[in-house]
Amino acid sequence: xxxxxxxxxxxxxxxxxxxxxxxxxxxxxxxxxxxxxxxxxxxxxxxxxxxxxxxxxxxxxxxxxxxxxxxxxxxxxxxxxxxxxxxxxxxxxxxxxxxxxxxxxxxxxxxxxxxxxxxxxxxxxxxxxxxx
Length: 132
Known about the structure:
132 residues, mainly alpha, Serine Threonine Protein Phosphatase 5, Tetratricopeptide repeat, 0% strand, globular
């Protein structure tokens, strides 16, 4: 019999493994990192679900939002990815340097690099860094 938590999370029933995953899922930042990992494993549907849950649990964490952006970029939802990055830029100025440093080289954001809005964001991040 599949447990309630297992069914809610879309997990096959594997007892102790799922209990460990459920413990992890309750941790906001780990959940966001888990979404990125699921993308690497090819589980886009569950990755998106985990990213959404992380955003619901901690909508003001720039690392959670950044990981959601990476997840969305890889699963083919560039608008959502860009929206996440723009949110951090607009509402979390202290995280701009961190976002710039990571977004410059993050392979998971490669699908965004040719987009004009992403290029504009990177220019704004660089301008902000130059002032500091």
